[in-house]
Amino acid sequence: MKQICVVGVGYVGLVTAACFADLGNRVIALDVNEQRVENLKKGVMPIYEPGLDELVKRNVSGGRIHFTTSYAEALKDAEYAFIAVGTPSGESGEADLQYVEAAAKSIAQNMRAALIIINKSTVPIGTGDWVADIVKSAQPNPNEFAVVSCPEFLREGSAIADFMSPHRTVIGSMDKDAANKVAHLHLPLRAPIVITDLRTAEMIKYASNAFLATKISFMNELADLCELVGADVKEVAAGMGYDARIGRHFLDAGLGWGGSCFPKDVEALAFMAKEKGLNPRILNDVMDVNNDRRKDAVKNVTKMLGGEIKGKTIGLLGLAFKPNTDDMRYAPSIDISAALVRAGANVRVYDPVAMEVARPLLSAEVTMFKDPYDLAKDCDALMIITEWNEFKQLDLEKVKGLLKTPVIYDGRNIYDPKVMKEVGFTYRAVGR
Ligand code: NAD
Ligand code: UGA
Predict the structure, then answer these.
(1) Is the terminal CB of the chain with fewer CB neighbours within 10 Å at N or C?
(2) CB 92, CB 267: distance < 8 Å
(3) Which run of H or E residues covers position 268?
(4) Hey, whose CA ends up nearest to atom 20 of ligand 1?
(5) Residue to probe by mutation, ligand 1, list 16, 31, 89, most atoms within 8 Å of CB
(6) What's the CA-to-centroid distance between 216 and ligand 2, angstroms?
(7) Model pTM?
């Protein structure tokens, strides 16, 4: 049993805290957001993540996890402090490190004994050294400490399984002893452990996200060509994916990548390259291809409706940036609904879990529906924006009967074009 402090109880921090507690450690999870901490004490989760509610509650009742807003309390007996605060995009695309800086200062001011500080947030290369400088100069009394990078690779929607069974654990530090201790903490996960220097570990995280985003943009570019030459991008992906050198994952064409990480991380990596005098050509194109997906979806549905969407009613199924989360950060639904409203369409939306989070991010003119069938009634077209399971087996005959015109733009390729034709839809998917 180790004593662990986790700073920041968002998607990564709360999952990290709950999973380490579940592995038998004593965890104190801290956040500066008092409301979040109060709610967590009452058992109310700040985010929607499958399985998290039960995991947190079980470990709270087992006495292995506590929540606080006090750094002094959180660090009192801590041997490890994970920093899991946000690193959003700054004004020029750089990672905004203000939360990491604040967390590092607070840790320095409140640590009372030797501590291993672990950066779990995704941070620019060199941040570990910078955090070490901050801690060194902000400590009232010098205590021994080491800074270790241990980037997180979980995905929202499957965060607990990803945390508990990672493909690898990456640990970067200039302090071998600290790196080994952090490795020991991760042994129960039984994943390959890659120990590197600090900067290399920080780069592995950016490189991994940027590479996955590149795979998706590549397939999206290919999807446009597939449409023009009569190939099916879904089958192309399947055919490519059997080659172990390529792999089947992250080859799904559609509306492109959104979320809290790929957009900001690809941009931040490009920013770092530019800052060093390089021209990140691939990363720039990967971002351009992705940004065009949202505009193209609006163009395509407009075409399907005869070139004019002013006064037409368009229903969006799905708002979250991906299924099984309520995260709306950089979700395609935000840009797509805004473009449709600007063009004069009446926009309706439905999402199984993200409606509350989405409301302030959407135009006031967007109408929310609590059920996909109610939403479909009298719509001129439906657009599939997020591939939630509940959309995959809708009663298509019923939907067709409810729509004013049977038009579906499937931005996530969840339906079989042949079946859609048979039912009588005017159907368009991506790259097929
Ligand atoms: P988040 O916005 O969900 O949560 C961040 C939390 O940190 C918030 O609750 C906030 O109140 C808290 N916080 C901010 N400043 C603080 C401070 N000084 N002290 C204590 N708490 C503070 O963020 P997230 O999505 O969990 O991402 C955190 C980091 O992990 C980012 O760097 C992100 O890139 C990285 N990451 C995220 C994911 C993901 O799926 N979301 C996956 C891997 C890595
Ligand atoms: C992603 C990475 O997969 C995680 O490894 C990483 O830890 C995380 O970012 C992070 O650093 O925050 P996440 O953003 O939760 O995880 O979700 P993904 O499943 O990777 O999807 C990202 C986006 O790509 C979504 O918008 C999704 O719809 C899109 N996507 C994904 C595609 O368009 N096609 C695909 O084949 C796969």
Answers:
(1) N
(2) no
(3) helix 262-275
(4) 31
(5) 31
(6) 10
(7) 0.97
For residue 100, the surrounding DSSP H or E stretch is helix 98-110
Please list, in sequence order, all residues whose beta carbon lies within 8 angstroms of the beta carbon of residue 133, skipping any fewer than 6 positions away: none
Q: How does pLDDT run across 303-347, given as a tens digit for each residue?
A: 999 999 999 999 999 999 999 999 999 999 999 999 999 999 999
Of 191, 337, 210, the closest CA to residue 284 belongs to: 210
Q: Are strands 65-68 and 26-30 parallel, antiparallel or unpaired?
A: parallel
Identify the residue whose C-alpha is closest to ligand 2 atom 2: 155
Phi-psi region of 130 (alpha: psi -120 to 50; beta: other; left: phi over 0): alpha
Catalytic positions, please?
261
CA–centroid distance, residue 255 to ligand 1 (Å): 25
From the CA of 46, give the closest atom in ligand 1. 9
Q: Does the beta carbon of 209 sit less than 6 angstroms from any atom of ligand 2?
A: yes
Instruction: Spell out the domains of the chain, with CATH numbers in brackets.
Output: 3-196 (3.40.50.720), 199-432 (3.40.50.720)
The secondary structure of residue 359, as a DSSP letter, is G
Cβ atoms of 13 and 83 within 8 Å: the answer is no
